[in-house]
Specification:
Two copies of one chain form a homodimer.
Chain A (H helix, E strand, L loop, with lengths): L9 H6 L21 H27 L5 E8 L5 H9 L7 E5 L5 H4 L5 H4 L8 E5 L4 H8 L5 H20 L2 E9 L2 H13 L9 H7 L2 H15 L6 E5 L3 H19 L10 H9 L2
Amino acid sequence: MTKHPTHPAGWSDRLRVSSPVDLSAIDTSATPGVLDKDAAEEIFDGTSRSLPKLQEKLFADSLFGGEHSVLVVLQGMDTAGKGGTVKRVAGPMDPQGITHHAFKKPTEEELAHPFLWRVEKELPAPGQICFFDRSHYEDVLVPRVHELISSEELTARYAEINEFERRLVEGGTTVLKVMLHLGRDEQKNRLLRRLDRSDKHWKFNPGDVDDRGLWPLFHDAYEVALTQTDTEHAPWHVVPADKKWYSSLAVQQILNEALQGLDLGWPAADYDVDEQRKRLLAT
Amino acid sequence: MTKHPTHPAGWSDRLRVSSPVDLSAIDTSATPGVLDKDAAEEIFDGTSRSLPKLQEKLFADSLFGGEHSVLVVLQGMDTAGKGGTVKRVAGPMDPQGITHHAFKKPTEEELAHPFLWRVEKELPAPGQICFFDRSHYEDVLVPRVHELISSEELTARYAEINEFERRLVEGGTTVLKVMLHLGRDEQKNRLLRRLDRSDKHWKFNPGDVDDRGLWPLFHDAYEVALTQTDTEHAPWHVVPADKKWYSSLAVQQILNEALQGLDLGWPAADYDVDEQRKRLLAT
C-alpha cells in the first residue's frame, strides 16, 4: 500500500531533486507514491474537496494582515501538461484566490528590461495562490540552448534567481518549483494528437517540431538550471509527466502539503460577536 | 415545463430590466425560468460541462487575432452572493482564461485618479472572461447614498459610464451587467449565519449592519443607476438572489448565451497539417 495520502511532506520529499540533477535517471513514466490511476484519482478527488478550505484560510488570513502567499512555478517541454495541470489542480478552488500567468516569448518591451521585470509584475499578493506556466527559468533555459548570452551572464542569472526567490520567501511567499518531466516519445504522441484533431490544430506550432531537435540541449539546460537553483528556501521537484493523472496528482499534493505546513486557523473576530448579533437582530 | 435550457437569448431576455427600473416590483425569492432546485441543478450541471468548450474557443480565437472578450459585472448588497456566484460559474472553466477582480473601498491613490482609472487596469484581454465583484457602479452608488458628490457630477458619471462601456463593446468586449437582487430579510439570515460560525467570522464586518440602515437609499441609488445605464450595448439584468442555486444558474445562463452568440469555431490551421505530421514522424 501507498503511504497515507495526506502524510505531511511525503510528496514534496519524494519528488525533490538531488544534486547534481540527472534527468536521464528519472523515469518519465514512473508513478512514485501511488499504485495506479484509480488510486491516484481517489487521492486527487479527496484533496480536491479539502484544498478549497485551506485556500480560504490563506485568503482570510491575508485580510487580517497575514502575508502568506504561494507561487507554483511549472516548467517543462511543450505538451508536458503545464496548462492542464493548473486547470485540474486549481479547478476546485475559488477563482478569487487564484492567479495564473502563462509566460510567452518575451516582447520587445520585456527584453528592454532586466529579465525579472516581467515576473515581478505577476507575483502573488498576500492570500493568493499563483501559478506560473513557464517563468523566469525560460530566461536561463532558452539563452543557454540558443547561446544568446555568455556563460558568465548565465551564472549571474542563476545567482540572481536564487537571491530573488530568497526575497520572495522572506516576504511570505512559499515558492514551489516543479519540472514536469516528459518523455520524448510521449511528446511525439501528444503532438500527433494535436494534428489529428481539428479542434486541437490551434495548439500546434511548427516550431514545436524544430524544438524536438534541440531536446538534448534543453535537457542539459534543465539539469544545470535545476542544479544551480535548487535551494533550501525554494527547492525543485521533478515530476514524471508521461501520465497526466500522475503529474496532476503530484503537483496537487505538493501544493496541499505546503498549505498544510502553513498551519493557518480561521482569523478570530475583531469585534464582539454577541453585541453584533443584538445590533443585527434589531434591524 | 420550462423552456429548452439552451434556448438562445432566453435567460438574458427574461431577466433584462425594463425602464424605469422598479426593484420593489421584482420578487427577490422568485425563480423565473425554472421550476425548482432540482431542475436548476440539472441545467447548471449540463452547462458546466459545455461551457469550458465555449471558453476554450474564445481563448483559441484570441491567439489567432480575435478580439473578443467578456466582462461580467456583478453588483449587489452585502451577502448577495457575488463571490459565490463567480466561484460556481467559473469553477469548471480553465483558470487560464478567467480573471476576477473584487473592487474594495477605493484607496487614496485610486481616489486621486478619475473613477474609471482603477477599472481600466482590470479589463479583460482578448480571449478572457473577466468577473467584476463590484465595479465602477460603486462610484455612482456610494456617492449618491452618502451624498459625496453633486447631482450634476452623478449625472456626468452615468454618461461617462455609458460612453466607457460603448468603447469596450466596440473594442470586442461583451459587457454583461447583473444586479443580484437580495431580500432584506434574507440578508439578515446570511449575516446571522456568519456570526454563528467561527469559520465565517472573518467575513462579517460591523459596517454591514450600519449599511442595512441605508437599505432604502441604496435601493434608490440602484434604481437610478440601472435606469441611467441600461443601454442596448450593455444591458442590465436583475437576478432574484434569495436562492443561491437560482442566482448562480441565471448568471451562468446569461454568460452561456453570450458565448453562444459569438458563434466562434475552432481556428483553422495556418500550416500544412500533413506536412507537419511527416516532419514530426521523422523526429
